[in-house]
Amino acid sequence: MATSNPPKPSNLLKIIWEALIFLTNNWKPALIYIFFYSTFFPLSFFQSSAITPIITNLQQNLISLSKLKPQDPDFYQTLTVILTEIREITAKETVFYVAIFFLSTLLLASTLCFICMAYADKKQPELKELLSKFRRTWKGALITQFYVTIFGHMSVFISFLLTCGIALFSVNFAGVAVSFVLLILGVILYPYLAMIWLLSVVVSVEEEEGGGGRINGLAAIVKATEMMKGRRLKGILIAFILILLNLVVCLPPLMHLSSSESKEMVILGIFFVVGAVVKLFELVVVVVFYFECRNGGGLKMNKFGAEYSKLASEDTVDSEIP
What we know:
The chain is mainly α. The chain is 77% helix and 2% strand. It has a two-stranded antiparallel sheet with strand order 1-2. A hairpin with a 4-residue loop joins strand 1 and strand 2.
């Protein structure tokens, strides 16, 4: 169901438009992705059900411990129970987090393989070709996603430290001014880093080194940073739009959670499905942007996505308004 004569939007809007066209033409594979992504919802529910009783007992034991003194006979017994519960929670959460990270990264890698192949070749790949590409690239995607996750957690930690510092020292005009400047920098820097991290995973799926090996990990992040040169403004704007889209779509269901457990489960289920659609759209947009960066931005519409023509000049200026 392709549009033969689409409107002629600006470069930024054209990326969004082509992502929508691609999803429209590949709606059946999109449904498969949404189905598998949504399976993380019951997994999260079962994990929460297993952890909640332990957390409840831990809270009760902490309250009991606060009422005891070290010389009381039950003090060390209660403390031992608390430490055991903390270890149990930590072990279960660690296993769950590692399993979800591994499964979600495999789903991410397989989805990117399909999007890249269907987008570049102008047709849906055969299952044999898709599996072959997945076998070659899933390890690199896993390594790159690991680094991306580490950097993401580091950025959150640094932001937390800066927030605490600002809260302590922003008692005068200078402190307020510094807080405002840091806020502006954060609004600009986070979308830029987010786009680099997203691009790096695509790089680990698509790019090869000179010897035929795959580019992954830190090398993929460096490669993605280089590809952003000349297109930083466009990348930041795209990432900012995707972040806003996630907030607009995902926050309302969480803000309207009902006290009724059944209604709450329905709302959370809808949240996961809608979140899967948004995530898929995000991946397609990033792939479109990746190919524009790699091919110099010569985009031409076709039935399955786009054809690419190398521009004579590979670099564009950052000041170009997308």
